[in-house]
Amino acid sequence: MNGFFGTPGAATQRSARRSARKSGPRAPTPGSPADLTPEADPHEVARAIVLRQLSMAPRSRHQLHTKLRERGVSEEVAAGILDRYEEVQLIDDAEFARMYVRSRAQTRSLARSAIKRELAEKGITGELAEDALLQRTDEDERSAAEDLVRRKARPLADPGDRASRDKQVRRLVAMLGRKGYAPSLAFSIVKDVLDQQE
């Protein structure tokens, strides 16, 4: 993803790996697997992992819990650290969900159904997800889809060529479908936009 929820590009990652090779061995990064040594304080290790994750991008509690489990942090320690960070509002699933909905709607023109699936993958379900999705109205969705179709529609060499128009309709409806729009709504939007362009 790009923007607020983005990750470094491949070129940046390759550059970082080259720099690491040139500089030789380095001390373990806080929160790295190398920190999980017998003498390491598990609470300090867990805190370092969580803070490092949050410094890179917003995360849900579920995402942070998954990362802690991957790094071998016990369930008891993970729960204690995550509970504490929720108390001080460094972890806030409701705010995370609201930001995520705004970001994915603005940068990817996703329909609510698609965003809802992505939120579920991040552990945001039920009331939290529904409340966040209330930010997007039917009108917002339709407007975003219309703008997207206008940008992606290609001028036809012969506007009267029915086969070419039908092919374009199928392509644009499929594009909206991949973004979570229902087939009937996608077809209606595409037809309206193409009719306006003729």
From TrEMBL:
Belongs to the RecX family. Residues 92-133 form the RecX second three-helical domain. This is Regulatory protein RecX. Residues 15-24 have a biased composition (Basic residues). Keywords: Cytoplasm. The keyword DNA-binding does not apply. Residues 1-43, 135-165 are annotated as: Disordered. Its main location: cytoplasm. It is found in: Cytoplasm. Residues 136-150 have a biased composition (Basic and acidic residues).
